[in-house]
# Entry
Amino acid sequence: MSGRTLYMQQRYYEPVAGRFLSVDPVTTSDKDGSFFGRYHYANNNPYKFKDPNGTAPILIPEEVGGRMPLIGGRNLDGTPYKLSIGEAGANLRAAREQLAAKGEKTFQTYAKTNAKTSEVYCGRTSGCGTALENLANRDASHHMNDKGFGPAVLDKSSGNAAAIRGREQQLIDANGGARSAGGTAGNAINGISPANPNRGTYLDAAKKEFSQ
# Structure
């Protein structure tokens, strides 16, 4: 399964990171906001839920029309393939276990949203676990938790530290900019200082890796 990005329910899904690569609408059907997160499509469980418009997860029956529904995707060479939901789930688990077993260090970006002020704090982390494990370790004692910011939501995961460094700055800029620069994001300062001589290198790496 390594290297495959799944296409399911009109969204691209990265099985190693365990996250969708596209965002939901801003609205959410969740009344208390606990599931608010624009990458939290289908409760982040596309094998169990469907979510046509990105706002209301619906449980998928174990069988649809007498057989398991198929999920389409493409191999690295561009050729199409199809998997049943059960097969995709098994492959996802195997990919996560393989990554964790290797103990390779990876890097992640994430966002935390303040439900009251709508401010978004963006950051980065790293570790030798899966992307979600690294994120959970970082979020457990995050300094923004006591300031009303919700759980961290995974944005990108990569083995390229420079690309993640640049991606963090992209996220800060996309969410209003750092307050030190007169912005409205939850970040007090930029991820990369304007005076940092490597700023361009980091941003270029992010654009190349994530095409943004």
About this structure: Residues 106-210 form one domain. The CA atoms of residues 43 and 93 lie 17 Å apart.
